[in-house]
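quick q for whoever's on today - can somebody do inverse folding on this one?? i tried earlier but teh output was garbage lol. tokens:
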């Protein structure tokens, strides 16, 4: 996510030609976009990070259901 925010900020700064970012080549921004694409489409899946996030979300939902179920019985 920080990579996406960085790309968005660089695009805005470059587009409005703010300070030294006016001299920044668009190729650097495009290279960051390509790196982000490769990360999110291939590397994250190879490392299993996408599944880890899904499992963490499922575990959180499970804990909330357990708290809700036992909380009503008392």
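ok took a stab at it. sequence:
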């Amino acid at each position: 996510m920080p990579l996406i925010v960085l790309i968005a900020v660089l695009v805005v700064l470059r587009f409005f030609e703010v300070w030294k970012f006016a001299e920044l080549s668009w190729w650097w921004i495009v290279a960051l976009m390509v790196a982000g694409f490769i990360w999110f489409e291939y590397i994250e899946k190879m490392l299993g990070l996408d599944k880890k996030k899904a499992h963490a979300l499922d575990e959180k939902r499970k804990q909330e259901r357990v708290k809700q179920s036992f909380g009503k019985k008392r």
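fwiw The chain has one domain: 2-73. also Residues 2-73 form one domain. so keep that in mind when u check it
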